[in-house]
Specification:
single chain, alpha/beta, Rossmann fold, 2 domains, six-stranded parallel β-sheet, 37% helix, Isochorismatase_Nicotinamidase, hydrolase activity, hydrolase, Isochorismatase-like_sf
């Protein structure tokens, strides 16, 4: 049996993280520089190698306006709405510098838990990926490629929503930063991890490398280490939020030690 035929027997999933308008379009509210080129490369991969892809999963960052990581949830000590890109610590809330407009006791405990567990410090983002808005839609170029793949293969794409619960940040695909009591959508998604683990390889792409992609990879390593060895990160199909790339680097290094591989989109089916 030749190596090419052996490769075609590999069951392959493509996990595309948050390839949405607000991240991928220069006019998006939280545009990630380079993302528009990333989605073009993902779309080209699907168009050229779609017969080798057995499943496509699209994650959807999904938020309400009154989200714990959006400005309107917060005010300063003078009652003014907090500006985007503000870093908020538990200590600054205790001191009264920043005031949550909703559930203050819960929010303080949330911030303390974030910091204790070594998660990203709480950060206020521009309103993005609002439910029902243009910003929440999948990038047009990518969506056309995914639809063409579905019609060609007669396999429907799958969507996975995250961030629906407004009381916790939800970077990673598989679990919110801090799960909320009695909110199963924020708990570890063991079923999805198990589903991905049925594939021989899982190609990972999307936005942003520094945040949602990196956190998803860290969750795989932590909660499903056997899956890490099946992951191939498409390095030219993800970009960093500016000045945050250094957060992702050690996560990817640890994942590599656990067997995660790296490839460019036009090489992935040639090199493995």
């Amino acid at each position: 049996m030749n190596s090419n035929f052996k490769h075609t027997m590999k069951k392959t999933a493509l996990l595309i993280i948050d390839a949405q308008y607000d991240f991928c379009d220069p006019n998006g509210t939280l545009y990630v520089p380079g993302a528009e080129k990333d989605v073009e490369r993902i779309a080209n991969l699907i168009a050229l190698e779609g017969t080798r892809i057995d499943a496509i999963f699209l994650t959807l960052d999904t938020h309400k306006v009154l989200d714990i990581a959006h400005p309107l949830f917060w005010e300063d000590q003078n009652g003014n709405t907090v500006a985007p890109f503000t870093l908020i610590s538990a200590q600054s809330v205790k001191a009264g510098k920043w005031v949550p407009r909703y559930q203050p006791e819960y929010v303080l405990e949330y911030l303390q838990t974030l910091e204790k567990e070594g998660e990203f410090q709480h950060f206020i983002w521009p309103e993005h990926c609002l439910i029902g808005s243009k910003g929440a839609t999948i990038d047009d170029t990518l969506m056309r490629a995914v639809l063409a793949w579905t019609h060609r293969t007669r396999r429907d794409y799958r969507t996975v929503s995250k961030g629906v619960n407004p009381l916790t940040e939800h970077f990673g695909v598989f679990k919110a930063q801090v799960p909320v009591a009695n909110a199963p959508e924020t708990e570890l998604d063991e079923r999805f991890l198990a589903e991905l683990n049925k594939f021989d390889q899982v190609l990972v792409a999307g936005e942003a490398r520094s945040h949602c992609v990196a956190t998803s990879i860290r969750q795989i390593v932590k909660y499903a280490p056997e899956l890490a060895a099946k992951v191939i990160a498409l390095t030219d199909c993800m970009s960093d939020v500016p000045n945050f790339g250094h957060f992702a680097d050690p996560i990817f290094e640890e994942a590599a030690q656990n067997g995660m591989k790296f490839a460019k989109a036009n090489q992935v089916f040639k090199e493995n």
